[in-house]
Amino acid sequence: MPELPEVETTRRGLEPHVVGRRITAVEVREPRLRWPVPADLSAALAGRRIDSLGRRAKYLLFATGDGTLLLHLGMSGSLRYLPGFEPPQAHDHVDICLEGGARLRLNDPRRFGSLHFARVAAEHPLLCDLGPEPLEPGFTADYLWRTARGRRVAIKQHLMNGRVVVGVGNIYASEALFRAGIRPTRPAGRIARARFPRLVDAVREVLAEAIGHGGTTLRNFVGGDGRPGYFRQELSVYERDGEPCKRCGTAIRRTVLGQRATYHCPRCQR
Q1: 246 half-sphere exposure, CB direction, 13 A CA radius
Q2: Is 246 designated active site?
Q3: Rounded to an integer, what distance in angstroms lies between the CA atom of residue 21 and that of residue 104?
Q4: Alpha-carbon span 15 to 238, nearest angstrom
Q5: CATH number for the domain including 14?
Q6: How far apart are CA 25 and CA 216, in angstroms?
Q7: pTM, whole model, 2 decimals?
Q8: Which of 11, 48, 56, 58 is catalytic?
Q9: Domain CATH for 147
Q10: Catalytic residue among 34, 111, 232, 260
Q11: Could you tell me if residue 132 is inside a domain?
């Protein structure tokens, strides 16, 4: 599923093409996404100018003055910029039409994406209870240690809890824990305070590097320009079960934690 680096890559790719342009219509070919696309979405957005394109967690935020379009790519979605009309293909469910004939096209094979219109984005139920952004100052070692105190949940699940910190999904939680040398199944509350600075640094490093590589393409993801991400070549543990650890040579192990595939090196991670 597109995680923070993939969404940020999409945002950066689309920003120069959409900011300052007006939305002329929203064409919905398949309204049955994770939540039904609002029937009045086109009427609410038509004629509005896109003032900025931001991101909160895994949501793209198209600010339009007194309202914001929230767009989530779901588990398999991508949002591409098309300079002109192209016939829609399979799973091309929604087009956001812009002045001049360009459009943004949402392709979502599994239909777990969503679109919402909010007068105040920060107050929307999907955003109002989220934790800090991992690449911003509020995400510190002391903060993460405090949220983990007394918690029996595995540290990987703790990192993937959007109320603790947003956007750290399965791939990047696995990779950050490898860099920090922490076993993903270790209870969050049993990790020494001295280990949290390295963990926070590892989360930041992995996410920043992934953004620099255009995200990670495992199956469906492409950025706003239609290109795949290339961080997959840099992965140390994710989907490398049975392969030798790049650090010590021990075979990487795959387990299931919280119904998600989890990968770690049994020697390097304690």
Answers
A1: 10
A2: no
A3: 12
A4: 30
A5: 3.20.190.10
A6: 31
A7: 0.88
A8: 58
A9: 1.10.8.50
A10: 260
A11: no
